[in-house]
């Protein structure tokens, strides 16, 4: 009897160690910082203050969104010539550590100067109130009244995002309804209803807001 119990205990311990070996260890933000320095900072500057308008700002973006995007970029479900090969090299542990670092990084990026003011004003109206005649839902309904996003719903921060990146991703949402996002249709419906002028307006508004403004 005792030996049966002992074997059961050994099997249980063996099972638990396999289970533990398979589940990723806790995220290590210090290791994430090292990985970021080696692999990310040349494009995504710390604090999001990259001067390049094509680069996505990721410092201070919510953790569920960053995790989801890195997994989608790694799997190729979200196509990106630049990010697919980089993400393909990341393990689950690397993603956990990088996300711990980037989501906690203080977003310092300033607003993008040089946005067309009239366009930004039109963009603010679409952001806050939508445009019923054009079938356009207010962005704030899902992204929050300061564009800060909703982490639990995997909805990203968008105010202060880089203008070149905003233009590109909104065009991508309009053209490709499903590229592996959590809620693939939400942004397709939104972006497909935007006229070209309104797309420029919303980009001018979002880019003219500071990244990481307090919610
Ligand atoms: C060679 C430049 C470059 C490097 C290096 C780079 N990125 Fe990117 N990253 C981009 C670009 C450009 C985009 C926007 C997508 C696109 O245009 O292909 C992007 C997009 C992203 C996104 C999606 C952001 C969003 O708002 O949806 C995440 C997350 C990301 N990168 C994380 C990382 C991480 C983590 C590293 C380091 C392991 C890294 N990137 C290294 C250029 C780079
Ligand atoms: C019905 C909810 C909803 C509405 C309304 C909405 N969004 Fe989104 N948005 C999302 C979700 C969810 C995502 C994450 C991507 C996904 O899962 O499809 C997203 C992603 C984005 C992104 C990508 C950010 C990044 O870093 O990659 C941008 C930019 C964006 N939205 C802009 C807007 C703008 C501008 C409007 C208003 C014209 C808007 N959204 C309205 C739900 C919404």
Structure description:
It is a single chain. Helix 2 (about 30-40) packs across helix 5. This protein starts with a helix and ends in a 7-residue tail after the last helix. The protein is mostly helical. It has helices at about 1-20, 30-40, 65-75, 85-90, 90-105, 115-130, 140-145, 165-175, 185-190, 195-210. It folds into two domains: about 30-105, Cytochrome Bc1 Complex, Chain D, domain 2, CATH 1.10.760; about 115-210, Cytochrome c-like domain (Cytochrome Bc1 Complex, Chain D, domain 2, Orthogonal Bundle). Bound molecules: heme C (2 copies).
Short structural summary:
The protein has 215 residues and is mainly α. It is 54% helix and 0% strand.
Characteristic key phrases:
disordered N terminus, Cytochrome Bc1 Complex, Chain D, domain 2, 215 residues, 10 helices, 2 domains, globular, mainly alpha, 54% helix, single chain, binds heme C
